[in-house]
Amino acid sequence: MTKETYTLQVAGVTRELPIIALNDALCIASFVILGDAEIVKKSAPLLVERLPEIDVIVTAEAKGIPLAHEVANELGFGTYYVARKSVKAYMDSPVIKKVNSITTTDEQILCFDAKDAAAIKGKRVALIDDVISTGESIEALAQLVALAGGEVVAKAAILAEGDAKLREDIIFLEELPLFTK
Ligand SMILES: Nc1ncnc2[nH]cnc12
């Protein structure tokens, strides 16, 4: 059997994305930037061109990390901030936001180490992620940044999936369709 794929063209590169069933009704084209140094390298400057004036870059683990790293390099920022999905033993006085998700019943959190939260306070923040889809993840990250006292001035991703392409409050390079069965 030949696996179905979706041909994505973004930032001058082409990728055949495997189409994966999420449930009986919905399939996604799986877009994984972890390990794809070329897509990250080529997308970062295109996103930077579209960003407003910012002071800091924030992402959430895990798939946004390489992109946030490259965007930071492009902007000459020596630092960016990664929200974690669990409190680590090495975190000092973490700032924690409970996350509501319709896709899981387990309670989820996003958190910053206190020193990262302090660095974000009062700053203009760009949220960086690989894909914005339902918007839940980027919204949870925005809430954590707000809790830390930062001002979110941009929400940017390489791809906007499904209805996210209709949003006027996000920055993205290309659309990614959803597939119904
Ligand atoms: N199409 C997709 N591929 C990988 N991760 C995703 N997260 C949301 N949509 C995705």
From TrEMBL:
Gene3D superfamilies: 3.40.50.2020. It comes from the Bacteria. GO terms for molecular function: glycosyltransferase activity. Residues 53-169 form the Phosphoribosyltransferase domain. The keyword Glycosyltransferase applies. Keywords: Glycosyltransferase, Transferase. The keyword Transferase applies. CDD domains: PRTases_typeI. NCBIfam families: PRK07322.1. This is Adenine phosphoribosyltransferase.
